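Hey,
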Amino acid sequence: MEKRTSFVARLVAVLALAIAVVVLVVALSSSLGGDSDSAKQGRQNSGHQSTKRPKTKAATYVVKSGDTLTAIAHRTGVPVGQILALNPEVDPQILIAGQTLKLR
């Protein structure tokens, strides 16, 4: 009889562990802001529309203090790769305020 009791105890322990893991996952996903249907609806009806910013008409951009290539690309609508291709002498890690970048 001891083997049967041991088997049942092990089975109950495995089931309890599985239930604890499921409860933990559900608790973490709800506390970390898991996407629920109401959250998705709130985002869809929030009135924010993603609009594409048109490319700038300017042919150049003067670097300001604190600018990065990514920030310049977002501001002007010109991709970072295109800025780098037009300005091969520019070190993308070190932009100097007052430096002029070609955009087209």
